[in-house]
Design a protein that fits this description.
The chain has a single domain (3-213), classed as Class II aldolase/adducin N-terminal domain (L-fuculose-1-phosphate Aldolase, 3-Layer(aba) Sandwich). Helix content is 42%, strand content 16%. Strand 1 (32-38) and strand 2 form a beta hairpin. Helix 2 packs parallel to helix 5 (139-145). It has 214 residues and is an alpha+beta fold. An 8-stranded mixed sheet has the order 4-3-2-1-5-8-7-6, sandwiched between helices. The structure holds zinc ion. The site of zinc ion (ZN) has 7 residues, from loops.
């Protein structure tokens, strides 16, 4: 990647960080955003920063095995899940981790988002697995994702938050926004009454649409 492209990617990561913060999907030092720089290099937000404060020069460059290659700040302990995603999914070029309140609330009750209620969610998110709880920052958390990488681009993490993947930073970020928006709509629907699922043939048509987009 050229110096100019890397600089544009740094700006784009910081823009995503600001949007996550502005929409209340992260608070304090929550969450992390990363993107592939090259075959064995990942550009990521550093540990401990509020996402509204991260500047392009604050980002760190990390190798596939988690070593810091560049940057003055510490690497986030949650980078392990990002690196595992890049390792297992060559199609993934960006990863967003946040603690969106409604979606995380759902995950804290052991539930996840159904993929047969809202068409946009079925197409953009697909089925959203609930990843079992493991201590943040430990390899056990990355291990908990292992059974779910194939066929999934959005994940709820039990008692913790959410993770989204994308072939681009834009798509990974859209998936995180959509995940929270879908959870809010579901919460509203459940407050109004019982949720009506789409007819099976309609769900099938949406899943085919999603498959064509991949
Ligand atoms: Zn987290």
């Amino acid at each position: 990647m050229s110096e100019r492209d890397e600089s544009a990617l740094r700006e784009a990561i910081c823009a995503v960080c600001r949007k996550l913060w502005e929409r209340g999907l992260v608070a304090g030092g929550d969450g992390n955003v990363s993107a592939r720089l090259g075959p064995d290099r990942v550009l990521a937000t550093p540990a401990g920063f509020s996402k509204v404060d991260v500047a392009p020069d604050d980002l760190v460059v990390v190798s596939g095995d988690g070593r810091k290659l560049n940057g003055e700040h510490a690497v986030s302990t949650e980078i392990g899940v990002h690196l595992r995603a890049y390792l297992r999914r060559p199609d993934v070029h960006a990863v967003v981790h946040a603690h969106p309140p409604t979606a995380t609330g759902l995950a804290a009750t052991g539930q996840t988002i159904p993929d047969d209620v809202l068409p946009e969610a079925t197409v953009l998110l697909g089925p959203v697995p609930l990843v079992r709880y493991a201590t943040p920052g430990t390899p056990a958390l990355a291990d908990a994702f292992e059974e779910h990488w194939t066929g999934h681009d959005a994940f709820l993490m039990a008692n913790h938050g959410a993770l989204t993947l994308g072939g681009s930073l834009r798509v990974a970020h859209q998936r995180m926004e959509s995940l929270e928006h879908t959870a809010r709509i579901l919460a509203a629907a459940r407050a109004f009454g019982s949720v009506q699922s789409l007819a099976p043939h309609e769900v099938l048509a949406l899943r085919e649409m999603r498959a064509r987009l991949h």
